[in-house]
Amino acid sequence: MFIFKSSIGKKFIQAISGAFLIIFLLLHATINFFSVIDSFKGTFGAVAADEALFSKGDGIFKLGCDFMSTPFISIMVPILALGFLVHILYGCWLTYENIQARGGWKRYEVPSKAAADSWSAKNMLVLGIVILGALAFHLTHFWAKMQLPEMFGIGTYENNPYCLLVATFGQWWILAIYLVWFCALWFHLVHGFWSMFQTVGWNGQTWFKRVKVIGVIVASLIVFMFVATAINGFWQAHWGWGATL
């Protein structure tokens, strides 16, 4: 098929899978940021005694985690995993084809709009590898202790997401790894956002500049919420709710 064999088709698939992941990241970052709001409301750590979803008395971060446990989201998990896989494989494939087409690893000596645009445009593969490695690290802290036991009965289920936050981000070296991850994610998103719109044809001189600005705003908002969540988790672990446990 044309969409799988042509360069434009492959880039289109990469753009669509990337758009799906940006939406998920925005939702995921927002729910995580609820823990920061809980801190200001004085409801950080508020979890009802029962294990029912959306219990009265839960903090809004716990309610957000309950939403992620609903049947609709559970159905979306394998679709999300497929989206990640497609995005990763096509990203590697496109990078390899670009290297071959431009004569090896010195491809960026050839002038091009993407190569001259930014540091992130030149290092999307490296950024992707860093993000992928940190993602695997991240899954062992949260997904493996919440969704995995709940969906497949593997491991011990943790019903209190606040405990996972303070246990993970309470260690400075883990916090440092996450902050590096978030930095790499910002660069990846900034380039990926405008590249996505360029692929689908929004590359006019006027709109292209606006899309790039919007991309910086969206990437900064997502990463800000992730960073705020991590730092707040560290603070809560040492001087807040976690310190009282």
Task: Based on the model shown, name its key terms.
245 residues; mainly alpha; 3 helical TM bundles of succinate and fumarate reductases; 75% helix; 0% strand
Characterization of this structure:
The protein is mainly alpha-helical and 245 residues long. It has a single domain (2-244), classed as Fumarate reductase/succinate dehydrogenase, transmembrane subunit (3 helical TM bundles of succinate and fumarate reductases, Up-down Bundle). It is 75% helix and 0% strand. The protein has 11 helices and no strands. It has helices spanning 2-5, 7-41, 60-67, 71-101, 113-117, 119-122, 124-141, 147-152, 161-169, 172-199, 205-239. Helix 2 packs across helix 10. The longest helix has 35 residues, at 7-41. The radius of gyration is 20 Å and the shape is elongated.
**CATH class bucket:** Mainly Alpha
What order do the SSEs take from the amino end to the carboxyl end, as H and E?
A: HHHHHHHHHHH
In percent, how much strand structure appears in the residues?
under 5%
Could you tell me the number of beta strands? Answer: 0
Low-confidence parts: 107-116
CATH fold type:
3 helical TM bundles of succinate and fumarate reductases
Q: Could you describe the largest sheet, including whether it forms a barrel?
A: none
The SS-based structural class is: mainly alpha
Whole-angstrom Rg: 20 Å
Shape-level CATH architecture = Up-down Bundle
